[in-house]
Specification:
This protein is an alpha+beta fold. The chain is 27% helix and 21% strand. The radius of gyration is 17 Å and the shape is globular. The termini are far apart.
Length: 136
């Protein structure tokens, strides 16, 4: 896939484009870099999807396409975003109803991360809830 990265785009637009190809993975941006195989502190997470890429690259004008292959390891994608686009990003993987930072499994490819997420999907069936509170 080609991931379009431009100073005028928002982080949300890039996230949506990435997730269209990998629906169980999420690209999350941060204001500070992280070390290889290490997580990023939540306090540096960019939470506003309206944040322009140009704000994160400190005004560097960027208009490029990044070729993202399914057999690309997570660490390589994160490294390319850092070196080529000055963007600090982490790939997160869906695990049931939770998103996990993939820092420990950065050697896995995007395709393997996607498969791992599919294996961990939780399917809920409706069951009458049980009330565990003390009874009167």
């Amino acid at each position: 896939m080609k991931l379009h990265i431009s100073s005028e785009l928002t982080t949300g637009q890039i996230q949506d484009e990435f997730s269209a190809e990998f629906p169980n993975l999420k690209l999350v941006f941060f204001s500070k870099p992280h070390k290889a195989y290490a997580g990023s502190p939540a306090k540096f997470m960019i939470t506003k999807r309206e944040t322009k890429v140009g704000e994160l690259t400190h005004g560097k004008d960027i208009h490029k396409e990044l070729f993202v292959e399914a057999d690309m390891p997570v660490w390589q994608l994160e490294r390319l975003l850092e070196l080529e686009y000055h963007l600090h990003a982490q790939v997160f993987r869906r695990s049931g109803n939770t998103w996990l930072e993939t820092s420990v499994t950065d050697d896995l490819t995007l395709e393997q991360q996607e498969a791992k997420a599919k294996d961990n999907q939780v399917h809920f069936e409706f069951v009458d809830p049980i009330d565990y509170r003390e009874q009167e």
